[in-house]
């Protein structure tokens, strides 16, 4: 979600700025005086350029990209994790959740609403199913490579 906002928000702001600057009062006389009166000439104002990349280079990550995110009672994972990597879990819901390994005691972390928590990924490669102990319909798979 952060990535979407990071990319969409500047585009919307630029579109609004262009729309505001592109209004035409229908007067082609070249006068800098508007129909509302007063001098609104911007000839003395410095110009400003806004340049935003439209896509990220392959492999580039934004802060938060390496998080398991819980939203609307669903887990979203960023891909694979390295053995022993610190995994951050962000809970965007209004209910407490857990990330609990289905087998063994590999990982089990509780995350309060609106908070983050971390745990260490298993030290060996593999796929590790997990669930929320409070909401059994919430399941996911942690891939360690």
UniProtKB/TrEMBL annotation:
<feature type="compositionally biased region" description="Low complexity">
    <location>
        <begin position="23"/>
        <end position="57"/>
    </location>
</feature>
<dbReference type="InterPro" id="IPR052721">
    <property type="entry name" value="ET_Amicyanin"/>
</dbReference>
<dbReference type="InterPro" id="IPR028096">
    <property type="entry name" value="EfeO_Cupredoxin"/>
</dbReference>
<keyword id="KW-0732">Signal</keyword>
<feature type="signal peptide">
    <location>
        <begin position="1"/>
        <end position="20"/>
    </location>
</feature>
<feature type="region of interest" description="Disordered">
    <location>
        <begin position="23"/>
        <end position="63"/>
    </location>
</feature>
<dbReference type="Pfam" id="PF13473">
    <property type="entry name" value="Cupredoxin_1"/>
</dbReference>
<dbReference type="InterPro" id="IPR008972">
    <property type="entry name" value="Cupredoxin"/>
</dbReference>
<feature type="domain" description="EfeO-type cupredoxin-like">
    <location>
        <begin position="55"/>
        <end position="142"/>
    </location>
</feature>
<protein>
    <submittedName>
        <fullName>Cupredoxin-like domain-containing protein</fullName>
    </submittedName>
</protein>
């Amino acid at each position: 979600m952060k990535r979407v906002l990071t990319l969409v928000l500047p585009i919307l702001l630029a579109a609004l700025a262009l729309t505001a600057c592109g209004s035409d009062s229908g007067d082609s006389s070249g006068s800098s005086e508007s129909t509302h009166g007063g001098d609104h000439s911007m000839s003395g104002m410095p110009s400003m350029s806004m340049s935003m990349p439209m896509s990220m280079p392959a492999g580039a990550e934004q802060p938060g990209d390496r998080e398991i995110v819980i939203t609307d009672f669903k887990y979203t994972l960023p891909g694979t994790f390295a053995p022993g990597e610190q995994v951050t879990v962000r809970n965007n819901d209004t209910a407490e959740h857990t990330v609990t390994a289905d087998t063994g005691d590999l990982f089990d972390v509780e995350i309060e609403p609106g908070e983050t928590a971390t745990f260490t990924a298993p030290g060996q490669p593999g796929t590790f199913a997990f669930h929320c102990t409070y909401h059994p319909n919430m399941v996911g798979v942690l891939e360690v490579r």
